[in-house]
Amino acid sequence: MLGFMEKWALYVTFILIALVLAGFGLFDFQAWQQNALQMPAAQFNDLWQTCSIIAGTLIVVQGFETPRYLGEQYTADLRIQASRQSQLISASIYILFVLLAMPLVPSLNGVFDDHSLITLAGLSAFGFLPAAVIFAAVLSQFSAAVADTLAASGNLSEISAKRISTPVSYLLIAGFALLLTWSADTFEILALASRAFAAYYALQCLVAWRATDSARVKSSSLILTAIMLYIVIFAVPVG
Question: Are residues 236 and 53 in contact, defined by beta-carbon separation less than 8 angstroms?
Answer without folding.
Answer: yes
